């Protein structure tokens, strides 16, 4: 059991990669908080999973654009579970829009969730983990943190920011016993891809030498590694889990 007796928070934990990660952590003996926006399926998932595993599974409302909700998520988790050992900073949205036609609101919303949200959650996690003298933060970046793609200016800016912010946080937190890493998924079969039409999806699949989309569980396994003591000498890294996408074709 890689996470026996550990307490984990997963933002965006009600769907896709987040939900798969919640389940893997529970399988590995952790108690897990699903943190997601109010109208997500988080409460229903938590209720079901809490009955299925020996660890606790709780749902807490947390919109990562709201600093007060993020800070409360950590305060409440510490009050209830007594520690936060690992965090998957995973909440995010997609966003396809021509750069000459994107509104301020749309651009800023993608940045606020995918970049500023990651910082808000990391900051709250660092405060708790510094007090504990231990912990692991894993930020969800993307292959689009290192590659460009047409019509994703805000998304790629945010994910590139997450990759480099992770390096800085990794350096800053290391002397306090806290590791900070990022995962860079290739295209993964989750509701996030529903905005893409079939032709676009087929074209993207061709860019993965493994020849298919990734499964959410394959990212969850990478999270599990980085969250656990198996990754005790890994910090400031961006672990690409992308079916060979960034290796080239
Ligand atoms: P999903 O849409 O399945 O899951 C994202 C979750 O985040 C949803 O539950 C969503 O809620 C929630 N969420 C959205 N906005 C907020 C917010 N403001 N505060 C808290 N939670 C929020 O997508 P994925 O599982 O695919 O994405 C997870 C992460 O993986 C994202 O950071 C994404 O950028 C990244 N990623 C995904 C890839 C892919 O191909 N799927 C590739 C590379 C990176 P709701 O559904 O109610 O909006």
TrEMBL record:
GO function terms (MF aspect): oxidoreductase activity
Keywords noted in UniProt: Oxidoreductase
Keyword Transferase listed: no
Stored Pfam families: adh_short_C2 (PF13561)
UniProt similarity note: Belongs to the short-chain dehydrogenases/reductases (SDR) family.
Protein name, as recorded: SDR family oxidoreductase
Organism, scientific name: Vreelandella salicampi
Lineage: Bacteria, Pseudomonadati, Pseudomonadota, Gammaproteobacteria, Oceanospirillales
